[in-house]
Amino acid sequence: MGNRDTAAVLVAGGTGERFGRSSGKQLALLAGRPVLAHSLQACIGADRVGLVVVVCHPDRVSEYAEALGTDLSGIEMLFVAGGARRQDSVAAGLAEVPDRFVYVAVHDGARPLAGPELFDAALDVLDGEPGLTGVVVGHPSVDTLKTVQDALVTSTPDRSRFWAVQTPQVFRADALRAAYTEAAASGREGTDDASLVEAAGGTVCVIEGPRDNIKVTLAGDLAVAEALLAARAKGGA
Amino acid sequence: MGNRDTAAVLVAGGTGERFGRSSGKQLALLAGRPVLAHSLQACIGADRVGLVVVVCHPDRVSEYAEALGTDLSGIEMLFVAGGARRQDSVAAGLAEVPDRFVYVAVHDGARPLAGPELFDAALDVLDGEPGLTGVVVGHPSVDTLKTVQDALVTSTPDRSRFWAVQTPQVFRADALRAAYTEAAASGREGTDDASLVEAAGGTVCVIEGPRDNIKVTLAGDLAVAEALLAARAKGGA
Question: What are the structural domains, with CATH classification, of chain B?
């Protein structure tokens, strides 16, 4: 086991619009266990993670805590009430992370296919490069990308420059806090955590993760996730 | 059955570098049938398609023809030798399309999960909008996108403007021919057919297709495709 210098913030729903869409998914069963339990297991299994802050709807805290059990192998775990936007939920989780943690890993509760090795790979890169503020997991775009307006193609940017990124995303804790403080002050919004860190002047790099690290959001995604897990068991990507 | 005014060009390998990587995949079995047979079935099953031109490595023509059988339900089928780049292979296929076809649908042989309804949906939009040159199938980007240089994030563009596009891509036959002629004359390259049509001044629109319309390129993709087919059977996306 490594140095437990990292707190994970696991984003599992807030009080806003996203909640209605995604709350059911967190406890939906995937290979016999709640989706959120898979995502939690990835956080817990990472060598450097010493605390997991699960951010969820305030009314769900006890239900989630019970569903996830208490077999945490010495890892600390907290449940925190989320906010209206994903960004508010991450901020709420971050506020509970003690100063002793050097790094923070943010992960979507609805990404059950990311394994602990992905956390450790990202954290090792961050730990090894003092000039880096954060590391995000993604993969180069495999499809051609188009910019689109009103369903019409406006351009075909060179796809070799583009990566699609997911979570986990890991950061130096102080830099992530500063980025969130700045975002709150300026009203800045981002679709991921790294974009707030980038906007605050941070240096973020990408590392390649598996292409099947999907987010379970639509009804059909659960069957797809189930199938992808089965494919992995058969030696698939 | 509709008006068979469309020729499909099914791109299944050329003479170049791509061949070594992808040739095995075309005949690899997916749910008991070659990957290419699935992709061919989608072309054949589309109401408007009256001819399928299969473009493949010259040494593979007889092997592919045999593997795919001859049960074509009255559809014409040709096998044509491909070129060094995907673009050269499409051009070779296009050269065999008789003038009587109003539309051309280009499809990747390694996309076995696109169904015939996707061809018909794209062709119906194209047929109904005289101002359109082409229609491509894709979906809005679900992941956050980053532009990346030497593994460092250089920007986070607004993902709401971006679509990831796949095949089928359908075009007015004369406009696609003109775009290919222009690309050959100018040395222009594109990662998809629409980009050549766009560069030649064409108007292309997107329609939303399934997110699981993956391209089988890596070894693990076959297991993933198999799993996605199984998920569909269970009512997945």
Answer: 6-236 (3.90.550.10)
